[in-house]
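Reproducibility note. Readers wishing to regenerate the assembly model reported in the main text can use the exact inputs given here. Chain order matters: entities are listed in the order in which they were concatenated for prediction.
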Amino acid sequence: MDRRYTILALIAIILAAGLLIIPDKGKTKEMEPEKLLSAVNDQARFITTDAVTERIIGGDPTLQLIDVRPADQFNKFALPGAISIPLDSILSQTWQDVLQQPGKDKVFYSNGDVEADAAWQLCTRAGTRKVFVMKGGLNYWYNTIIKGAEPSNTASSEDLDQYSFRQAAKLYFTGGSPAEERRTYINEDAPEPAKVKVNVVKKAPAKSSGGGC
Amino acid sequence: MGVIPESWNNVFAVLLGMGFGFVLEGSGFSSSRKIIGTFFGYDFVVLKVFFTAAITAMIGLLYLSHIGWLDFSLLYIHPTYLASAIIGGIVMGMGFAMGGYCPGTSFCGIAIGKIDALLFVAGLFIGVLIFSEAFPLLEKLYNSGNLGHKLVSDSLGISKSLFAFLLTVVAIGMFFGATWLERKVKKVEY
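Running the prediction on these inputs yields the following structure tokens for the assembly.
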């Protein structure tokens, strides 16, 4: 037997054996369908519009809002700090850097929450972590924060508290007039109990940043 | 992806074809006696060349995929048609054994002026004509036993790298076995 052939054969076997040592990357990073199904049933992916608003106003650095509506709608109106990734390009390589940011909560929103939920499913299946959906979408956000109806005086203190928070948030987003501001204070005065007062103090930073705006 | 425009596909096809033909001729495949040697056991170069090509490509692909230069999911895997593959394999094997050429090497043979290669290609075209005309009759067989994109490693439930290693070992064992057999069988000069 020719020596050269023996050496070549040995090289081939060594290279092939090398394959056994290196980790198998053949497996896809995609989530298993069963896991995806249980993740879909988990409501923890939803974030309320109020929570999102609070984090926007607080300047939460871990929040990354992602607008999955078409670009023209994004250009007309978008939440502060949001970036536009239309649903049809959510898996595009261009946006992987944004979606794979570690330590950031990627919150999808659309007009309702169907498209945002679709984006969440695509990204979750593709193995993206820390993605959330803004529950109710922009419509719910607009109807509660900007056009929020005043609760009756007999409403629960939570409702009144929530309303005062939303009014403050509205000031932040719209840069409201002093009249509105005064009305907000009047409403806060309405529920006298001390319990509510404590909560009002808690919301104060949000309001002060609103005043500065 | 998208680095080289699609209109260049034919240019690459011609260049690769020329390279393939050159290697075939260089390995002596343009002689029908070379291929027929595999059946009579005096020359196993065909077996060695094609198995070397297969294991080299296999090991290369797995390494390239590991270092991230190649995306396995973009590779085209030919679907497995079980029945038509078996019958087609038998027909092709018989053609091989009778003519001493495979379609590729027959054109190599023509390029260097072999008359038997010319006849073989004439037969090849007659075969193509018959198949095309009889296609409505054969269509059911042609599409039968479709198993989709099957990989041997998946069917066996082992990893790609383990299969690659086993195949390499088997191939090299076969090369040495073939060489041993070549020495036993009476040498044919051609």
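We highlight two features of this model. Chain B has a mean pLDDT of 87. Chain B is about 70% helix and 5% strand.
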